[in-house]
């Protein structure tokens, strides 16, 4: 098995040592929608300059963050609760990693970025969120009105009496 | 008993698939153990890496109150 893996790598490496990487980034939410393109083009340009080839890309879209991310801007800490999240998957030589990573970190329009090695195949899962949960929720909803139906016809007249009793007692 | 990943024939776990990753995280945002998830060791490692990446990028919370 180990031998097979080595051979596969050599074939795909093309003697230059090309590997598949993915970067994910959050662009500052204060940038306007039409100003996003130059930022992305800037990243793409850097990858191309390092001899990278693009495999797949996700356009940046405004995403709410699970927690506030603080970034230092002009010596002040600024907290962001949203960002334009986008990603690029590409093939590049190993030597391209360090300069690209450094460039992403120093880019002022980018709040945060990840850089990691991945596989050539599509990694997004076609996943329908668990059906088990939906059934359970449905059960709860069904059982609730049943109780009301039983309770409602009996109580209508009695309720008023009961209420009066309670209020009078007080 | 097959786990979620093998049932849906998911070979790669992507950190961007937040809905999928939420299946492996408890209401507090902690990664569930292998006894709860029923994943193989290899799958569990992939899920862990993906959840941690998603947390770093603010797609999943580190903690949820």
3D structure, described in words:
- By secondary structure, chain A is an alpha+beta fold.
- Chain A has 2 domains: 2-117, Alpha-Beta Plaits; 129-170, no CATH class.
- In chain A, 44% of the residues lie in helices and 34% in strands.
- In chain A, strands 2-3-1-4 form a 4-stranded antiparallel beta sheet, covered by helices on one side.
- The longest helix of chain A has 39 residues, at 131-169.
- Chain A is elongated, with a radius of gyration of 28 Å.
- With 65 residues, chain B is mainly alpha-helical.
- Chain B has one domain: Ribosomal protein S18 (30s Ribosomal Protein S18), CATH 4.10.640.
- In chain B, 43% of the residues lie in helices and 0% in strands.
- Chain B has helices spanning 4-7, 18-21, 34-37, 41-56.
- The longest helix of chain B has 16 residues, at 41-56.
- Chain B is globular, with a radius of gyration of 11 Å.
- Chain B starts with a helix and ends in a 9-residue tail after the last helix.
- The model of chain B has no long low-confidence stretch (mean pLDDT 93).
- The interface between A and B is medium-sized, with 25 and 22 residues.
* pLDDT averaged over residues of chain A: 81
* Euclidean distance between termini CA atoms of chain A: 82 Å
String of helices and strands of chain B: HHHH
Report the strand count of chain B: 0
Query: How much of the polypeptide of chain B forms β-strand, as a percent range?
Result: under 5%
CATH topology of chain B: 30s Ribosomal Protein S18
Helix content range of chain B:
40-55%
Helix content of chain A: 40-55%
Number of domains of chain A: 2
| Mean pLDDT over the residues of chain B | 93
Distance between the termini of chain B: 32 Å
Please name the fourth-level CATH homologous superfamily of the largest domain in chain A. Ribosomal protein S6/Translation elongation factor EF1B
Give the CATH architecture of chain B: Irregular
Residues in β-strands, percent of chain A: 25-35%
Provide the CATH top-level class of chain B.
Few Secondary Structures
